[in-house]
Amino acid sequence: MKLIFTLLLSAAAAAVSAADYIVGADLSFLKQAEDRGTVFKEDNQSKPGLQIFKDHGYNWIRLRVFHTPTQLPNSLEYTIAEAQAAKKLGFKFLLDYHYSDTWADPGKQFLPKAWEGKPHAEMVQALFEYTRDTTAAFRDAGVLPDMVQIGNEITNGMLWPDARLPANWDNFADFIKAGIAGVEAGKGNLPRPRIMIHIDKGGDKVATRDFFDKLNTYKVNYDVIGQSYYPWWHGSLNDLREELLATIKAYGKDVIVVEAAYNWTPGNYRNKPGPFPETPEGQKAFWEEVNRTVQAAPDGKGIGVFWWEPAVAGGTGARGFFDLEHNVLPVITVFDKYTRR
């Protein structure tokens, strides 16, 4: 009887773990695509984009927000509307603060125009107030994020030049702490969203260690390490495996591959062989292997994966999940075997 009880407990724990595993997609351009008239399809039958992902086991949506975008759609109002649509279908929500009016990544971290010319202390206060007020806006709209990124791919810092790394770690830590404090202040009486620190070193255990060893000297209170992993930039799947092992061993944090993608038509591997063919089936095989690598991370600390921008307008792009007629590609089925009963 004791053995049976133990087995039942183990099965229950496994079921909870499977249910909690993050199967995610950054769908920040999906609403724009559909607003512009793009009709996504499965087997030539039109279907709302969010529903396609929901039907194939996706349970999280990642959405970015820009401070005051002038050319891109990802304003606070736009992002709230897409989060509300996702929440109605049962998705959980990761919010990606870029702290810029446009793209922020390892090669650029532009100041929001509204913060230009401010001294450091005023910019720290501005970042705190902006994070507090936007978090409160999501809360009041019924879509408080379940997880929040304080910055996007911040290996080289944020809000350049004030907090560009490696020269300005003190300033950088001020901004990270202000962002976390803003989430805490904006959540009201609700539980604090989990806090992610997101860098772009998914295949580089040395660079990851250097970044987080330094960050941890500032006693930053974060929960999750997010990594970008694009093999043409970040290394082999074995490099990713080694980085996950080393990171979890060093810090004991949950880890998510929060950005990954692969082409379904030739693009990144025209002049050299890639790990998989750049075909629809090769794209699917890549996603299966990334997921296996994360799921195999020790101590259950590999808690999920996100594809970057699988649904965009106008032909959808070679790294998307849809062909030129907006029919969904085989990659959508990767999680069917994990989530269907």
Q: What's a quick, concise take on this entry?
A:
This protein is an alpha/beta fold and 341 residues long.
- The number of helical runs is 11
Shape: globular
- What value does the average pLDDT take? 93
Give me the secondary-structure category. Answer: alpha/beta
Strand portion: 15-25%
The SSE order reads HEHEEHEHEEEHEEEHEHEHHEHEH
Poorly predicted sequence stretches spanning 5 or more consecutive residues: 1-19
Strand order of the largest sheet: 1-4-5-8-11-12-13-14
Q: Radius of gyration, Cα only, in angstroms?
A: 20 Å
In total, how many beta strands? Answer: 14
Helical fraction: 25-40%
Head-to-tail CA distance between termini: 28 Å
Biggest β-sheet, characterized? 8 strands, parallel, barrel
Give a description of the structure.
- By secondary structure, this protein is of the alpha/beta class.
- It is built from eleven helices and 14 strands.
- It has helices at about 1-20, 30-35, 50-55, 75-90, 120-140, 170-185, 205-215, 230-235, 235-250, 280-295, 335-340, and strands at about 20-25, 40, 45, 60-65, 90-95, 105, 110, 145-150, 155-160, 165, 195-200, 225-230, 255-260, 300-310.
- It has an eight-stranded parallel β-barrel, surrounded by four helices.
- α4 links the parallel β4 and β5 (about 90-95).
- α5 runs parallel beside α6, α7 packs parallel to α9 (about 235-250) and α9 (about 235-250) packs parallel to α10 (about 280-295).
- The radius of gyration is 20 Å and the shape is globular.
- The two termini are about 30 Å apart.
- About 45% of the residues are buried.
- Mean pLDDT is about 95; it is low at about 1-20.
